[in-house]
What does this fold into?
Amino acid sequence: MIKKITSASNPLIKELIKLKSVRERKETNSFIVEGKDMVDFCYENNMVKFIISDQEQSAYQCDQIIVPTFILEKISSNKSVPSLMALSFYKEENKALGNKIVYLDGVQDPGNVGTIIRTALAFGYDDVILSIDSASKYNEKTIVSSKGAIFKIIPRDNLTIDQLKELGYYIIVTSLKGAIPYKEVSKKDKFVLVLGNEGQGVKEENILKADVVTKIAIENIDSLNVAIAGAILMNEYR
Amino acid sequence: MIKKITSASNPLIKELIKLKSVRERKETNSFIVEGKDMVDFCYENNMVKFIISDQEQSAYQCDQIIVPTFILEKISSNKSVPSLMALSFYKEENKALGNKIVYLDGVQDPGNVGTIIRTALAFGYDDVILSIDSASKYNEKTIVSSKGAIFKIIPRDNLTIDQLKELGYYIIVTSLKGAIPYKEVSKKDKFVLVLGNEGQGVKEENILKADVVTKIAIENIDSLNVAIAGAILMNEYR
It folds into this structure.
């Protein structure tokens, strides 16, 4: 169905504008993606509710709303407003947890979270779990920096390290306090790699739950970026 | 010397405001850093010309200018304006090129460039070289995302791959078209690791100059983030 809307006070448009707020996105499990690349990533993964554009888009077999440019500007979160957007949603994940999991314990920069999801997908990890204090999967920067990976490996946010331990996962925590060089960690079939906050690292309470606390040797500087450290470890244990 | 300035039309303040432009920073080899962490990184590396603050800062033994908040706001490039900044500069690098070099061929995102510099320093690389079409070392995001590493491993921008080849460096190019898995690249004492643009990768002309073209095996997605790929290779060849 293709629908033209020309008024910014239309109730649907008002709903779309509200979705600039991450909280609103979370509550409604819906978010706007902007630009052809992002729309295509969502579309390929059947996560588009409808297309939003200033003209009919024949490439997409789904509902569309056509709006004037000033409404696109109101809906967009970006300075340069694209003429193609989509209202999208995350499908419910019903599949069982896989064997190779990355757990983000308070990773706050959405660019880091998105990059870690992209890397996890590229290295064949099954799941990414976000602690409640990590950047949200609804944050636009998380979505954009994942380069579409987030639509294939939708992060979960309802599991604790205690629960994962009970499920028999081997818990590998990375910390500057780690004693074991990362190449010496014994390989397990079923494991969780825990990465921590940019400033504080993994929370002390979660370090205590680890089966092994490991580190990457560095020189000249205090720390690596968390997405960089995560990538080196994901690559080693993949 | 401590100097109070209260007018935004003061010539020095006008110069400082101009430094929001990367071109102006480049031409004058000077840039503003904002916030205590960044100021401290510069100060420790003797790259502060003077401190800019709304009050005297007894922690720093160097020239200071004291200005009201509205002038700090004019100088700052950030939404949340810190009360401590510094005018900084890059020292001229007179030391000879080291053996382990990272060359960025058109890496455009300053966050990626900064993160690569941070990783290069952490893994003991000697030099980072930026092609003319890479993000500038004067870009504020490059500086901030390097977490101070850029003051210790100041990127060079006056060397081509041809020159490096003539100097006897082994040229390792990473490309999705690469045939050699990265772990099979033979280790050399003196080498250059070439990383390419986020979208296009390393330029074709530079791929042709490589001694080896290597790749990291990935699945499910087209590519890794360049700072991630770079980190895995830097770690392997360090």
Remarks:
- The first strand of chain B starts at residue 2 and ends at 4.
